[in-house]
Amino acid sequence: MIDHTPTNALTLLAATVLVFSVASVFWAVMAQGARLAPRASFGLAGVNALLALSLSLHALRGTAPALLTFWASDVLSIAALAVLRTVLPTLVRRPMAWRSAGAVLLSGAALLATLPYSGDMRMETRAVFASLFALSLMASLDTWWALRQRVSVAMSLLLSGPLFVISVLLAGRLLESLILPGNNTDILGAGEFNIAWLWSMLAMNLVLNATMAFLILAKLIRRIQRLTRHDPLTDVLNRRALSEAIDTEHARLQRGKPYALVMIDMDRFKQLNDSLGHAAGDAALQRLVEVLKPCVREVDALGRLGGEEFCVLLPLTDLAGAALVAERMRLNLEESEFLWQGQSWPLTASFGIAEAEPGDISADAVLGRADRAMYRAKAQGRNVVQALDA
Amino acid sequence: MTLFDANTLLQVSAAFHGFMALVWLVMSQVFRIAPSAALLLAAGYFSIIPALLCLDCQAWWPAPLQNWLQKLLSLLGFALMTLGIRRMMRLHRRRLDIAGVAGMAALAMLLSIMSGHSAAALAATSAGMGLLTLLAAHDLQTGGRATLTVGVRRFLILPYLLLAAMLLGRSLTLLGMNEQRPFFVEGAHASAWLAWAYLLLTLAIGIGLVGVVVTRLIDRIRYMTLRDPLTDALNRRALGSELQTLQAQAERGQSHCLVMLDVDHFKRINDSLGHAAGDAALLHLVAVLRANMRDLDRLGRLGGEEFCVLLPHTPLADASRVAQRMCEALRRNPLVWREHRLPLSASFGVAPCQTGDPQGEHSLALADWLVYRAKAEGRDRICVAEPGAALGRVHQP
Question: Chain B window 271-310: which residues touch A at a Cβ cutoff of 8 Å?
Fold first, then answer.
């Protein structure tokens, strides 16, 4: 610290334990009260509690039994990171990674049990920090890969970076015991090194907790963003999001980029609802989307306009291309099976296609043509693809 | 007090303040969560650090600033944090009280220093910080009424009250005691136990604020999953579960009703004027319906242009009067959209919640059928279920 007031090691350690304990209570409340990512939150409550316990035991060196204050204290700190490594994947809906974490914890604990805990304790330090480093690196890499699949590089770096920094610090402590032996491992020793290490432990823990909170916040925010753009029932774009996509595409029409729309309306949806109930109707819509989705490319946008009406935006596609897509959808749907409580119901839809033309003032004109074409398909007996005559 | 060292504890508090400042900076700049409130909180946390970090380093400041700069910064920090909390709780009250308390405390502090009363200066600063903390607690209490339960609010506010008591207590002690008696959290006589208390309260307050933000996000998600994004009415699923509650009560003899309605010739609006006009029509409809609803009533969108209003504890006769009022209000208030005057009407079906129907499907089907009858009779009217029979009677407009 830049201060000339000396830092008291015992006070700093006690304060650090207090911070860990408060953090532990916070996560427990979040998990229990707010049901916020309960497994991860409970895990973090455990991580903080284990670290607090490990440090408290360490502080009792000389007054309490050696097995508790040395071996148990070290194993508890490894256990804390093992719990962290275990629960992290649950934040991205993957199973808990308890095998690798458990393996490191058990081997670390076993190795420490064979060591004498006397002399300069360099071997013990190496065993502890090697285990901590391995666990922290696994957690960091996990987080990085999970984030990279979901958010931008910058965001992934920001959110997983702190975990890598912690790994580097732990690795540094391991290297330090190899290159510069002689630093007392007793963090209560008043040496400057130990004071600095205590401060960095406090900082690491704060950063760890903040990073976890940010990961959970990022998850919540992504959920909100999804909810504002997607239809909750079928998970395709909602009407607002689809309209925006179509309007954007329409703006590019002026630069000679054509696009086409496919309007889709499920056949006899009202009858289905009336005879099998609304729950069956919902299931049928979900089934419809499930069948249609494989027919759209990454650049296309499938959205629900409301009720049983869907629309697909096909950028850089003309009427012939749209006809191909629509025909494939129609066929897939006709061949698909929809069962509701053992009862089979034929799923078909009527399709109307339209291509944007240079004369179209707004996207509504194209939508209107696709809509009229769809009505023509309905009039022709349903389960067909139709376009308006030019 | 030999076991623990107050200075170290204040250093830890300072480190935590710096950490919280960074957290709020990330919240505001990266996550865009309540950006202005988060920025105020970050600035507040930063301002308080110098007063905590080193009590003896006043000597480092330029001589004319030595006595008052840290005190002023602490006051500023508390004021900024109180402002941030008020912002975060979305209370649009005037900020005169915060500015007034902070300004008066600063003035009193500066005057005391100029007249050479350093204890009085510290007392003024402490009193100002204590009052600001009380204001923050009050804002949390009123602002959290909508989203937080009583227990959670008490739990959140407790550290504020304790901190305020601590600061005001220091102020009173300083004023009551004679000159140059450095009281806790200041100077060599700093009391470790009070520094512990300060650290714990700071941790509780800081983490509690993060908790408030997180619960707010969760509430938003919960709200969004229950609402139709366009009209803000309940979506079908949410309306269904509300209806199930009413159906269960209907079994125990309560009389509830539901009003189903379908906008007349909605497709015409959509086709002739575009979807934007259709959206405007639905929003207009919802506004008119809401004006004729009680707080207890629930409005839901079943899909497309079909809506349903649940009227708890309402006999059928009253429900049909409500529907009639809604029908007439729609007729009286045409939608004005981009200089188009669009007359809007709907067909209503009014049905009681039936017994022996836990899912509410029969009640909905009856209301649906009544809407269909109202449509068949020429639209823009209500059709009410006949008690005891599945037939309705149509009210002429």
Answer: 271, 274-276, 303-304
* Residue B79 CB-half CA count within 13 A: 21
Q: What is the CATH number of domain A239-387?
A: 3.30.70.270
CATH number for B236-395: choose from 3.30.70.270, 3.40.190.290, 1.10.3630.10, 3.40.50.300: 3.30.70.270
Contact with chain A for residue B91, Cβ under 8 A: no
Which residues of A participate in catalysis according to the annotation?
A: 308
Nearest-angstrom CA–CA distance, A143 and A139: 6
Chain A, 265-304: which have a CB under 8 Å from a chain B CB? 274, 277-278
- Interface contact B31-A214, CB threshold 8 A: yes
Q: Is the minimum CB–CB distance between A91 and chain B shorter than 8 Å?
A: no
Instruction: Give the minimum alpha-carbon distance from A285 to chain B in angstroms, rounded to a whole number.
Output: 13
Is A26 within 8 Å of chain B by CB?
A: yes
Per-residue pLDDT 10s for chain B (397 aa) are 457 888 888 889 999 999 999 999 999 998 888 899 999 999 999 999 888 876 555 556 666 666 688 889 999 999 999 999 999 988 877 778 999 999 999 999 999 888 888 778 888 999 999 999 999 999 999 988 877 888 888 889 999 999 999 899 888 887 876 544 554 445 444 577 888 889 999 999 999 999 888 888 888 888 888 898 889 999 888 999 999 999 999 988 889 999 999 999 998 888 788 778 888 999 999 999 999 999 999 999 988 889 999 999 999 999 999 999 999 999 999 998 888 888 999 999 999 998 888 888 889 989 999 999 999 999 999 999 987 655 555 565 5
Q: Is the ipTM of this complex over 0.90?
A: no
Partner residue facing B200 (CB), from A18, A34, A223: A18
Across the interface, of A12, A203, A218, the residue whose CB is closest to B8 is: A12
Identify the H or E element spanning B301: strand B298-303
| Cβ atoms A139, A81 nearer than 8 A | yes
Which chain B residues touch A364 with a CB distance below 8 Å? Answer: 274-276
Q: Which two tokens stand for residue A129?
A: 């920090």
- CB < 8 Å to B192, chain A: 11
| Cα B319 to Cα B311: distance, rounded to the nearest angstrom | 7
Q: Which of residues 219-238 of A touch B (CB under 8 A)?
A: 220-221, 223-224, 227-228, 232, 238
Backbone angles phi, psi at B190, to 5 degrees: -50, 140
Residue A87's identity, in one-letter code, is: V
Give the residue among A23, A27, A53 at the shortest CA–CA distance from A40.
Answer: A27
- Interface with A, mutate which of B9, B12, B308 (most A CBs under 10 A): B12
Residues of A in contact with B33 (CB under 8 A): 217, 221
Q: Which amino acid is at A374?
A: M
Residues of B in contact with A203 (CB under 8 A): 15, 19
Q: Encoding tokens for residue B278? A: 């259709």
Q: How many angstroms separate the CA atoms of B225 and B146, rounded?
A: 18
Q: A341-348: which pairs have CB atoms within 8 A and are 24 or more residues apart?
A: A341/A276, A341/A280, A343/A276, A345/A272, A345/A276, A345/A280, A345/A284, A347/A266, A347/A284, A347/A287, A347/A288, A347/A291, A348/A266, A348/A267, A348/A268, A348/A382, A348/A383
Residue boundaries of the structural domains of chain A: 5-229, 239-387
Catalytic (active site) residue B305: yes
